[in-house]
Task: inverse folding
C-alpha cells in the first residue's frame, strides 16, 4: 500500500492546527473559566466560613447578652425585693412610732385631764369639807371656831417638848437675841386674850434662853384654812385644818388614781375582767 505523504503531513498539520485552535479558543477559556469558577467557589466558601464565624460570634454575643440580661434581671429583682422589704420595715417602724407617739400624747392628755379633774374634785371637796367642818365644830363647841383654833394652837405651843423648844429658840435667835420679830398668821382676827397668852408663852421660852423681848406681828391670810402659823427667820410652827384636809385630799386622789388604773387595765385586758 502506497503512503500519500502529502496527505499524511497535511493531516498532521491539521491535527496541530486543531490542537492550537482548541488550545487557543477552547481549552484556555475553559481553564480560565474553571479557575474563575473555582476562585468564586473558594471566595464563596470563605465568605460562608466567615459568615458562619460571624454568626457564631453573634450567637455567642447574643447568649452573653441574654445571660447578662438574666443576671441583671435577677439582680434587679433581688434589689427590688430588698428595697420593698426595707420600705416595708421603714413604713412599719414609722407607723409603730406614730402609733406610740399618738398613744403617748393621748396618755399625757388623758393624764392631764385626769389630774385637772382630780384637782377640781380635790378643791371642791376641801372647800365643802372646810365649810362642813367649820359648821360642825362651831355647833359642837357652841362658840366661834376661830376661838377654838386659837386655843388649840396655844395648847400646842405650850406642849412643845424640850427638843422642840430648843429648836424654836435656837433657830429664831441665830441672828439676834436682843429683839425677836415673829409673825402670827391666821385667817381671822385673834381674840386679844388668846393673842396675849401666845406672846406670854413665847416670851417665857426666850427669857429662859437669855434672849430679849418678842415682837409679835399679826397677819391675816385668808388662804390659810382654819389654822394659825407662827413664822420666824428659818422657823414655822403650824396648826390648821389644811393639813388634815391635804391628807384627806391625797387619799382621795390616790383612790381616784387606783380606780382609773384598774379601769385602764380592764380596758387593755378585757378577757381578764
Result:
Amino acid at each position: 500500500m502506497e503512503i500519500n505523504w502529502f496527505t499524511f503531513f497535511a493531516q498532521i498539520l491539521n491535527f496541530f492546527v486543531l490542537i492550537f485552535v482548541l488550545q487557543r479558543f477552547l481549552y484556555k477559556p475553559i481553564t480560565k473559566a474553571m479557575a474563575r469558577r473555582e476562585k468564586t467557589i473558594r471566595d464563596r466558601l470563605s465568605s460562608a466560613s466567615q459568615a458562619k464565624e460571624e454568626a457564631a460570634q453573634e450567637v455567642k454575643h447574643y447568649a452573653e447578652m441574654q445571660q447578662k440580661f438574666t443576671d441583671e434581671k435577677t439582680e434587679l429583682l433581688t434589689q427590688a425585693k430588698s428595697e420593698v422589704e426595707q420600705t416595708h420595715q421603714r413604713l412599719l417602724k414609722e407607723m409603730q412610732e406614730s402609733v406610740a407617739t399618738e398613744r403617748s400624747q393621748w396618755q399625757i392628755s388623758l393624764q392631764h385631764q385626769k389630774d385637772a379633774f382630780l384637782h377640781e374634785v380635790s378643791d371642791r371637796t376641801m372647800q365643802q369639807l372646810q365649810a362642813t367642818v367649820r359648821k360642825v365644830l362651831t355647833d359642837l363647841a357652841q362658840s366661834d371656831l376661830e376661838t377654838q383654833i386659837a386655843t388649840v394652837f396655844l395648847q400646842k405651843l405650850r406642849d412643845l417638848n424640850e427638843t422642840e423648844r430648843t429648836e424654836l429658840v435656837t433657830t429664831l435667835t441665830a441672828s439676834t437675841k436682843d429683839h425677836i420679830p415673829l409673825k402670827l398668821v391666821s385667817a381671822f382676827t385673834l381674840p386679844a386674850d388668846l393673842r396675849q397668852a401666845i406672846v406670854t408663852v413665847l416670851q417665857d421660852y426666850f427669857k429662859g434662853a437669855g434672849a430679849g423681848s418678842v415682837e409679835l406681828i399679826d397677819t391675816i391670810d385668808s388662804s390659810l384654812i382654819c389654822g394659825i402659823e407662827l413664822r420666824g427667820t428659818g422657823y414655822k410652827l403650824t396648826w390648821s385644818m389644811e393639813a388634815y384636809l391635804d391628807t384627806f385630799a391625797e387619799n382621795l386622789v390616790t383612790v381616784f388614781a387606783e380606780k382609773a388604773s384598774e379601769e385602764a387595765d380592764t380596758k387593755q385586758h378585757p378577757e381578764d375582767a
Notes: Residues 11 and 17 are 10 Å apart (CA to CA). The two ends are 153 Å apart (CA to CA). The chain has a mean pLDDT of 77. Residues 128-257 form a domain with the hypothetical protein PF0899 fold fold (CATH 3.30.2320).
